């Protein structure tokens, strides 16, 4: 039944205006009924986000994907999220990413070849790597890196459980190799009391990560030199300017922000945590928010009626441009093809990779409360 032969063509969907797209998405959702679940990440643009059955951060969405009974899981997010949905769902379910070009530039900063090379080099310095290092991958990574962690006694983390995951990992072995986001690893490790000197940055462009054997021996956490191009735009100068103007205001940031920005923030947490914290704050409160623009704009709209003020941290527009590729045209194209029993843009992780990746994801669920 799942085939793309005679599928409707995406080009035809760019002739519709916004109202028509919206109405047709609503109608297609209604016709597909329980066979469909649309999951929407908080960074999704509003015209798409409003059609999601459920929204959340990466941890919440991966749990929802695992629990869903729907035949079709349409993921309005980025590629690694749809891969996780495929890994955690049953074989008869189908995970779909409306635009295959919706990737994550941070996830692309690590790949299996580079991680295996690093593992081999660390093995040479430290002895048996499987006895000395727990590999930890941020969920923002390709499925084969999750599988690597599964095979080597490692684990996956998200921005909302990184501390519990690092605690567990350091109970297994003396050191952690954390990829691909250096900032989440550093911010979390420091919050657990690990000094900066015991966290080194592995430059994946250089032999031996650009580190000396002494530095590697001394390190507790080895941080892959990856970062998010959106969150690196938030700077200490933005926080200083806000505090000067609004000394009573609060600052809240995502842990993908730099160490300096997170240290200057009153609160640091996942997208779900940011929304919850601001939404539950007292009326009249003022917030500077260091995360993606679509989330912040939506939070501003939601809170302004309660007299709350929500400011975006950067003075320039910084959006997750890959997430933005999921537009109403691609969503409608996906749904109307499903109505004709045609599956477009299915995300399917090969079973041998999925099996090992599931191991690392299940370890994560076991340590997350
Ligand atoms: P959350 O899990 O906090 O939603 O973060 C996902 C992400 O990609 C942030 O850039
Ligand atoms: Fe990836 Fe950054 Fe986009 Fe999050 S905001 S999905 S880390 S590129």
What's the β-strand tally?
13
What is the H/E order?
A: HEHEHEHEHHEHEHEHEHEHEHEHEHEHH
Q: So how many helices?
A: 16
Which percent range describes the beta-strand content?
A: 5-15%
Strand order across the biggest sheet? 6-5-7-9-8
Poorly predicted runs are none
Mean pLDDT: 96
Which hetero compounds are present in the coordinates? 1,3-dihydroxyacetonephosphate, iron/sulfur cluster
Radius of gyration, in angstroms, nearest whole number: 21 Å
Give the oligomeric state of the chains in this entry, treating copies of one chain as homo and distinct chains as hetero. Answer: single chain
Name the structural class: alpha/beta
Percent helix among the residues? 40-55%
**Envelope shape:** globular
Instruction: Specify the biggest β-sheet.
Output: 5 strands, parallel
Ends apart, CA distance between termini: 39 Å
Structure description:
- The protein is of the alpha/beta class and 369 residues long.
- The protein has helices at 18-32, 46-49, 58-67, 79-88, 112-126, 129-132, 143-151, 162-172, 182-191, 213-218, 236-245, 259-264, 271-279, 293-304, 328-339, 351-367; strands at residues 36-41, 54-56, 72-76, 94-96, 133-138, 155-157, 175-179, 199-202, 221-224, 250-253, 267-268, 286-290, 309-312.
- The protein has a 5-stranded parallel beta sheet, sandwiched between helices. A 4-stranded parallel beta sheet has the order 2-1-3-4, with helices on one face.
- Helix 1 (18-32) packs parallel to helix 15 (328-339), helix 3 packs parallel to helix 4 and helix 7 packs across helix 16 (351-367).
- The two termini are 39 Å apart.
- 49% of the residues are buried.
- The mean pLDDT is 96.
- Bound molecules: 1,3-dihydroxyacetonephosphate (13P) and iron/sulfur cluster (SF4).
- Iron/sulfur cluster binds next to loops.
């Amino acid at each position: 039944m799942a085939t793309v032969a005679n599928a409707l063509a995406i080009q035809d969907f760019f002739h519709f205006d916004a109202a028509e797209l919206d109405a047709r998405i609503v109608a297609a959702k209604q016709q597909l009924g329980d066979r469909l679940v649309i999951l929407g990440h908080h960074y999704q643009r509003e015209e798409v986000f409003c059609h999601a059955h459920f929204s959340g951060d990466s941890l919440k969405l991966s749990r929802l994907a695992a629990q869903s009974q729907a035949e079709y899981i349409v993921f309005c997010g980025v590629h690694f999220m749809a891969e996780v949905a495929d890994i955690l769902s049953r074989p008869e379910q189908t995970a779909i990413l409306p635009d295959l070009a919706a990737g994550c530039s941070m996830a692309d900063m690590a790949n299996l070849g580079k991680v295996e090379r690093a593992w081999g080099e660390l093995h040479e310095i430290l002895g048996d790597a499987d006895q000395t290092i727990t590999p930890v991958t941020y969920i923002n990574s390709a499925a084969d890196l999750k599988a690597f962690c599964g095979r080597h006694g490692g684990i996956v983390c998200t921005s909302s459980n990184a501390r519990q995951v690092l605690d567990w990992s350091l109970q297994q072995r003396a050191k952690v190799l954390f990829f691909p986001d250096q900032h989440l690893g550093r911010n979390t490790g420091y919050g657990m009391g690990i000094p900066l000197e015991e966290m080194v940055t592995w430059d994946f462009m250089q032999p031996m990560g650009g580190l000396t054997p002494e530095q590697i021996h001394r390190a507790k956490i080895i941080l892959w030199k990856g970062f998010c191009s959106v969150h690196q735009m938030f700077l200490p100068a933005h926080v200083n300017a806000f505090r000067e103007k609004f000394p009573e205001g609060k600052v809240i940031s995502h842990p993908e922000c730099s160490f300096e920005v997170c240290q200057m923030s009153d609160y640091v947490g996942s997208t779900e945590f940011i929304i919850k914290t601001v939404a539950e704050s007292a009326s009249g409160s003022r917030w500077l928010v260091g995360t993606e623009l679509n989330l912040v704009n939506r939070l501003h709209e939601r809170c302004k009626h309660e007299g709350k003020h929500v400011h975006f941290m950067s003075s320039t527009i910084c959006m997750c441009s890959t997430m933005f590729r999921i537009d109403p045209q691609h969503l409608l194209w996906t749904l109307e093809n499903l109505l004709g029993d045609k599956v477009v843009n299915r995300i399917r992780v090969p079973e041998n990779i999925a099996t090992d990746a599931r191991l690392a994801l299940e370890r994560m669920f076991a340590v997350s409360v």
